[in-house]
Write a structure and sequence with these properties.
about 350 residues, alpha+beta, 4-stranded antiparallel beta sheet, elongated
Length: about 350
């Protein structure tokens, strides 16, 4: 450090007969802390803990963004599947209308079969319109989740058939306690608070510093060389009890952070268990809706056979079509409900992305 101060032993710039005289000083001064009872290492530990907390904040934000994107993506795929179901429903109702019109023309069936088939077709077309609108709404939600202004994809590949696999609950809780960002951040906070306590405690003790100086000074050139080496001890004699209250505050912050860790642990365990139960439930719903879809499909096949053979009526067919369409939609929704539950479980255990 280059310093231009009055050297030791000189009370001011000399003058002769009250005349101003130039006095030249060129000095390099080096100050070095020798010992401060752990204050500097504690401040470094506080900074490291703050950096770790910022990293966990980023990890938590990333997980929330991924969850929103996955949920929106699965919602969009579910809407596309639902649209296909409604398109199949419209196709079946059109086929039923053609069959009813053919029977009516040859005098096998009454006019009411045709009007019933027409009414069902119009209802199916209305449901298809709603399904297409739901696809567009889901697309907007997905674009928002991805941060897109325009839709850049020509097609979106659907996921393969879901094969439910649920890990053990104990394993999931263990992972969550290790890697959940909120808990890791709390551990960094405790480390930072402990370091703050050390820094505050060090405020009660003196600091030892060393100083060395070398330079040139004088009235005329060439200037005389000068140097000196020394040490100083700074003792906090009286600071209005600010150090005492800073120390108490640091300890209180440490206790609060430690207590918050217990609350966070309970909340994380609860979230993991709830997500696990939701995933188990979604797994069972998939199995049940798959069976219901198979039964409804068989029922529709039998109703169609009876109607074409002339022994059944159109109400049986339309009821079977509605039942199959609703069963198919429930199965589709169950598949994507499972995927959403799986995404929420990944977030609950703090899966890294």
């Amino acid at each position: 450090m280059l310093s231009a101060t009055t050297p030791p032993g000189v009370s001011g710039f000399p003058d002769t007969a009250n005349k101003a005289t130039d006095y030249f000083i060129y000095r390099f001064t080096l100050n070095q802390l020798i010992f401060d009872f752990g204050k500097t290492p504690g401040q470094m530990a506080v900074s490291r803990a703050s950096f770790g907390q910022a990293g966990e904040e980023l990890a938590g934000t990333r997980q929330r963004v991924v969850l929103e994107a996955r949920t929106a993506y699965y919602g969009y795929l579910a809407a596309l599947r639902a649209q296909k179901v409604e398109e199949e429903n419209v196709r079946q109702n059109r086929e039923l209308l053609r069959q009813a019109q053919g029977f009516y023309k040859v005098g096998v069936r009454a006019k009411i079969d045709v009007t019933k088939a027409e009414a069902n077709l119009y209802d199916a077309e209305a449901l298809l319109i709603r399904a297409k609108n739901a696809v567009e709404v889901a697309k907007v939600s997905l674009m928002t989740a991805l941060g897109l202004k325009t839709w850049p994809f020509e097609t979106v590949v659907d996921l393969p058939e879901v094969i439910p696999q649920v890990p053990p609950l104990a394993e999931l809780k263990e992972k969550a306690l290790k890697q959940r960002p909120e808990l890791v951040k709390n551990r960094y906070q405790q480390e930072g608070n402990q370091a703050s306590v050390r820094v505050a405690r060090a405020g009660f003790f003196p600091t030892l510093n060393s100083t060395a100086s070398y330079g040139w000074q004088g009235v005329t050139y060439p200037l005389a060389e000068s140097w000196w080496v020394g040490a100083t001890v700074n003792f906090p004699l009286f600071e209005g009890l600010s150090t005492t209250y800073t120390y108490r505050q640091a300890k209180a912050n440490l206790r609060a952070t430690a207590a918050n860790a217990e609350v966070l642990t309970q909340e994380v365990a609860k979230e993991v268990e709830q997500s696990y139960l939701d995933l188990q439930s979604a797994k069972e719903v998939i199995r049940a809706t798959a069976k219901a879809k198979e039964a409804a499909q068989e029922n529709l096949r039998l109703a169609w056979g009876r109607y074409k053979a002339g022994v059944g009526n159109i109400i049986e067919v339309t009821d079977a079509q509605v039942q199959f369409s609703r069963a198919d939609l429930r199965h589709v929704q169950a598949l994507y409900d499972y995927l959403v539950a799986e995404a929420r479980l990944d977030k609950a255990i703090g899966r890294q992305f």
